[in-house]
Amino acid sequence: MDYPVKTPQQVRPLLVGFRKAAGLTQAQLAARLGVTQQTYAQLEAKPESASLDRLYLVLKLLNVSLVLTQASRPATPDSLAAKHVKSAERPAPVKRPAEIKSDIKSGTQGTAKTGTKQAIGHAKPPPKSRSSEPRPIAPVIKKRESW
Question: Rounded distance, CA 99 to CA 97, Å?
Answer without folding.
Answer: 5
